[in-house]
Amino acid sequence: MTPAETPEVRMPRERTLLPTVVGVLAAILVFAFVLTSSLIATLHEFRFESQLPALMPFFVWAAAAGVGHLANLGRALFRPWRAAFGLWSLVPYGALMLITAVVPGLELPWWASLIAAGAAALPFLVVGFKADPNLRTSPVVGDDDESRRGTFLVGAALMVAAYAVSGPLITASIIAVLTTVALGVTSLMTHGLARASHTWRMRHWMALTWGSLVIWACIIAKGTTDVFDPWWAQFVAVVLAGLPLVLVNMVESRRA
What we know:
It is a single chain. Helices cover 74% and strands 0% of the residues. The protein is built from twelve helices and no strands. The chain has helices at 13-16, 18-42, 52-65, 67-83, 86-89, 91-102, 110-130, 145-166, 169-186, 196-199, 202-224, 231-255. α3 runs parallel beside α9 (169-186). The longest helix has 25 residues, at 18-42. The model is unreliable at 1-16 (pLDDT under 50).
C-alpha cells in the first residue's frame, strides 16, 4: 500500500472532543462556584454561612483523582488560561470579596455575583474551544474492584455533601467539617479513591459535575428559600447529587 493509499487514522470522538469538553466543564464548575461563593459573601441571608460548603465539591474532585493529578491538569491549563486573560477575569470576583471584607454587612445586588461568575468562567470557554484537538491524555485503562469501590465511595461522598448543605444547621455543619477533613486526607493518596484520572470515562466526569452542581444549587436554595424544611426535600437532594455516579459505576461494572 502506497503512502497515498494509507487510510486516515481517526481519533476516537471522545478523545477528539476532550479539550472542548474539559474547557466547558471547567467553565461550568468555575461559574457555579464563584456564583455560590459570591452570594454567600454578599447576601444578607448567608450572614451566618461560611465559604466551606462552597468548597466541598472541589474536595470531592480531589478525593476522586488525587490532588497530584488535578495539579498536573491545572499546570497544563494555566498557560492557555492566562493567555485568555484568565488573571484579569478574576478581578470582579476579587473586588467583590474585598469589598465585603472591608465593609462587613454590605449587601450587594445579586447580579454583581452573576457578573463575577461569568467573568471568571469565560476564559475556560476560550481555552476549551481554542485548545489543540490532539491533546495528549493518560489512556483509560480497565477498572478493577478497587477503582469501582472508590467510585462508589465518591458517589457516597457527594450524597453526604448534599446532606451537609441541605440538612439541619447544626448537624449539617458538623457533617460538613468531618466530610471535608476526610476528603482532604483521601485526596493526598497517589491516585485518590477511584484512580479517576486513569479509569474514569467521560460519563463519570459528567456525573461528578452534575453532583457538584446539585450541591451548589442546594447551598443557594437553602440560604434563600425554605425548600429544604421537609425531610423529603433533603432526601431528594441527596439522591440527585450522588445517584448518577453510582449508576454509571454499576453500568461500567456490568460491562467489565
